[in-house]
Design a protein that fits this description.
The complex is a heterodimer. By secondary structure, chain A is α/β, with parallel strands linked by helices. In chain A, the strands form two sheets. In chain A, strands 6-7-8-3-9-10 form a six-stranded mixed sheet, with helices on both faces. Chain A has a four-stranded antiparallel sheet with strand order 2-1-4-5. The termini of chain A are far apart. In chain A, 48% of the residues are buried. Chain B is 80% helix and 1% strand. Chain B has 21 helices and two strands. In chain B, α3 crosses α11 and α11 runs antiparallel to α12. Classes of the chains: A alpha/beta, B mainly alpha. At the A-B interface, α2, α3 and α4 of A face α13, α14 and α17 of B.
């Protein structure tokens, strides 16, 4: 369910690393309540785009606005509305899950009672109720990922960035993530998700953007993408390969087998 | 296969010099050049020193000095490696992330663990190859002994280093049998540290004890330097330390006493090989054969689960509000992380323990003789004020310099949070100041009982310590913000770049000089205008406060600008 307010807006967003143009003049407008899938081959610039949008990287040129707030000019205001789930759960392993979530809650200035309530709910949601007092270092990769996700959700952000949201998760947790994405979008939050799992993107995203070599080569809903790729009935995988040139590798694959 | 694994590792190191980012490449090249310079300087000056001792002193006396110097150098290495080695060895042989990959390859497990053992040995001892090896080379050069000495010396040196490493591995592995390995690392670092400190203490206390109960030794010493040196330094327990077998091997080959050389050489070789073999077999069994008692881990989980269930029914305190709750969540987090990471704790506090002992070793017996020296105020009082600042400042360099980089790969959490950079920096400064003040206060109280300067000096000293810790934390945190190094593990590594580390140290000394300069300058003025000393104290405190306020405001603004500019490329 989308509404008319723009949650994420980029204007000519560019990031160079030396001579390498990681993101090139990216222009995007994503509305509140929308789930936007961001696809691209490895090294295309997906994670860099997310880092630019969340203020972790400084753009070489261009701007990013989160809920109308420029992240360069008003980082504190913009960050209050952001939740990020990185692909690798780099979190404080020598804190317990509860301590970590409490810390994040405090960082975002949430009321103490509200924090405790949220912690309880999130641990229950991710099936970690009895494990909250254990140090995160004793958790498996999937459990750490769940805690990272819980950390991103604790302050109920209006814009959620997911970098490969289901990597390392068991099927039940992956399902929970998908449900969370849908539910939050229905509640009016904006979801920006980078993923390699095209089935997920096809099933839950309202719109999809495809980036290659730092440039946005296509954006739109499934129908619009089909038109762009001239694949009348193709699924997202076929459209993606058509647009990014993945089909060209078929000869090599055949020669290997 | 072992050859292949080692070649691969060497290749990785080489690629760091050729293919890494230009900045990192330059850092590595500069670092290597510095190591070469340090090695060459030690070689040059130790050759000069050994020649001087050999030429100027009586032959027998020179020999006694060399014997004792070798014994002590090797003993210090032994102690150091034991108390740093347990944690490192456990980490490399049990918890390192590449073990799973290596064990999945078609390589025998023994090869994998031999390779990991070599990695642990190098990781534990590479520093001594830079610092001690040039001494041993110059020891050979000055006496012009046959070339066979050099390869033999390297072999003996490696054997000597392998024994404490092996002991560290064995203790670590045995503990991993009974303790959850994730926790064993921390626990063993504590045990290792205490063990190391115990040996260090025995070095400090026993000579003094001997000196006190047998005053005639001292008299004898004045008449006969050789006997004096032997009485002070030649400890019977040293002979039982395996490190002494290594130093004796080198000493006897140098002196041509081949009977003793062979005896000591066999002793160290056999011990070293046996321990290495035992380590490899044991680590293989612990890791691969599942000898580690998993039931322990299960029991711990059950216990924790039980505790969590128990807490469920206790209303408000369900998640255990801590003492710090509501103070500042970033500081609370930093304290929790610090006190749960024994390796980091030891890294910070061990130098303090050693510096204190060093102080007592060098100065304590001389205290009474300095009663008449006056430097505007009695020297003891100046020392009472100065030494805690110096030592706590050394600790602070290690803490505050790592304040930002120490966040490691988790820094993105703070970077993403809607907290102003100045606030983050302020909490970091408070964190390192509090730690430094705690540390400095302990030292100051110990020194108070040694010098007995009076309560007013104690209060003055503590106030100075608070101001100094604050100022030094501001400097350290700022340098750390400008030169951070973000690494996956934050416990045992420097989280500030090489240049940042040097700059931090230089600025610390400059600040210390300036800080003490204000004290001495004001005391000089008080003396000149004949004001009572106690009247000057508030003036000194106000001046130091003004300096700190200026430093704080200037540096925190610059650092906040820098912190906002840090890009998260990890």
């Amino acid at each position: 369910m989308t509404n008319n307010s723009i949650a994420i807006e980029t204007f000519n967003l560019t990031k160079n690393f030396g001579n390498l143009v990681a993101v090139n003049k990216l222009n995007l407008k994503i509305k509140s309540g929308e789930i936007f899938g961001f696809l691209g081959p490895n090294g295309a610039g997906k994670t860099t785009t997310i880092k630019l949008m969340t203020g972790l990287l400084k753009p070489t040129s261009g701007t990013v606005k989160i809920m109308g707030k420029n992240i360069q000019d008003n980082p504190i205001g913009a960050k209050k509305d952001i939740g990020l789930i990185p692909d690798e759960p780099q979190i404080y392993e020598k804190l317990t899950a509860i301590e970590f979530l409490r810390f994040i809650g405090n960082l975002f200035g949430i009321d103490k009672k509200e924090i405790e309530k949220k912690i309880k709910e999130l641990l229950k949601l991710f099936d970690l109720t009895g494990r909250g007092e254990e140090l995160i270092q004793s958790y498996s990769h999937g459990m750490k990922q769940k805690i990272a996700i819980a950390g991103a959700l604790i302050h109920s952000p209006k814009v959620l960035f997911f970098d490969e949201p289901t990597v390392g998760l068991d099927p039940k947790s992956a399902r929970i993530i998908k449900d969370i994405l849908k539910y939050r979008a229905e509640s009016g939050d904006c979801i920006f998700m980078s993923t390699h799992i095209l089935e997920i993107a096809e099933r839950i995203c309202d719109r999809v953007g495809i980036i290659q070599n730092g440039e946005l080569i296509a954006a739109g809903n499934m129908e619009e993408l089909r038109k762009l790729s001239m694949e009348d009935k193709g699924n997202l995988e076929e459209i993606f390969l058509q647009l990014t040139g993945g089909d060209e590798d078929m000869d090599i694959i055949k020669s290997l087998s | 296969m072992l050859n292949l694994l080692i070649r691969n590792r060497l290749n990785i190191i080489l690629l760091g010099y050729t293919r890494d980012e230009p900045k990192k490449k330059a850092g590595r090249i500069i670092g290597t050049l510095i190591v070469i310079i340090i090695f060459s300087l030690i070689l040059f000056y130790s050759t000069k020193l050994i020649s001087l001792i050999s030429n100027k002193l009586d032959m027998e006396l020179a020999n006694i000095i060399f014997d004792i110097a070798l014994d002590y150098a090797f003993a210090i290495i032994f102690i150091f490696i034991i108390f740093t080695g347990i944690a490192t060895s456990l980490y490399i042989l049990y918890l390192s992330k590449d073990l799973e990959l290596l064990l999945s390859l078609p390589i025998s497990y023994r090869t994998v663990f031999t390779y990991k053992y070599i990695e642990a040995l190098i990781s534990n001892s590479h520093l001594f190859f830079i610092v001690i090896l040039p001494f041993l080379i110059s020891y050979g050069i000055t006496s012009k002994i046959p070339l066979a000495y050099y390869p033999l010396m390297i072999i003996i040196f490696i054997f000597t280093l392998s024994i404490p490493t092996s002991l560290g591995v064995l203790i670590g592995m045995i503990a991993a049998r009974y303790v959850n390995p994730g926790r064993a690392r921390e626990m063993l670092a504590v045990v290792g540290g205490l063990f190391g400190m115990l040996i260090w203490l025995s070095f400090q206390i026993i000579p003094r004890y001997v000196e006190n109960i047998t005053p005639e030794l001292k008299l004898m010493g004045i008449e006969n330097i050789k006997q004096y040196i032997i009485a002070i330094f030649d400890k019977p327990f040293l002979r039982f330390l395996p490190s002494t077998w290594g130093s004796n091997t080198l000493f006897y080959i140098h002196n041509g006493d081949y009977k003793e050389f062979i005896f000591n050489f066999i002793l160290i070789t056999v011990t070293s090989i046996l321990l290495i073999f035992l380590c490899i077999v044991l680590s293989q069994r612990i890791y691969y054969s599942g000898w580690s008692s998993t039931s322990q881990a299960i029991a711990r989980k059950v216990l924790k689960k039980g505790k969590a269930e128990e807490l469920k029914g206790t209303g408000e305190k369900k998640y255990g509000f801590s003492f710090f709750s509501g103070v500042n969540y970033i500081i609370v987090k930093d304290f929790k992380l610090l006190f749960r990471d024994a390796r980091r704790l030891f890294r910070i506090f061990m130098p303090v323990a050693m510096l204190i002992f060093l102080f007592f070793w060098s100065f304590s017996s001389e205290i009474n003789k300095r009663g008449n020296i006056n430097f505007f105020i009695p020297l003891e009082i100046l020392l009472f004020l100065f030494f805690p600042l110096l030592i706590s400042g050394m600790v602070n360099v290690n803490i505050s310099g790592n304040n930002i980089g120490g966040e490691g790969l988790k820094f993105w959490i703070l970077k993403l949070s809607p907290v102003h950079a100045k606030k983050i920096l302020r909490t970091k400064i408070i964190f390192s100041s509090v730690l430094t003040v705690i540390c400095g206060s302990i030292i100051m109280i110990i020194f108070y009982f040694v010098y007995k300067p009076g309560l007013s000096y104690l209060i003055f000293g503590l106030l100075l310590l608070i101001l100094f810790s604050w100022g030094d934390s501001v400097i350290g945190t700022s340098v750390g913000t400008f030169f951070p190094v973000f690494k996956p593990s934050q416990s045992n590594k420097d989280n500030v770049s090489f240049i940042g580390g040097i700059l931090n140290l230089v600025l610390f000394f400059l600040y210390l000089l300036f800080f003490v300069g204000i004290i001495v300058g004001m005391l000089f003025l008080a003396n000149y205008f004949s004001y009572p000393t106690l009247v000057v104290f508030p003036v000194i405190l106000v001046l130091e406060l003004i300096v700190n306020l200026i430093l704080h405001n200037v540096l925190i603004n610059l650092s906040a600008y820098r912190l906002n500019g840090i890009e998260w490329k990890y």
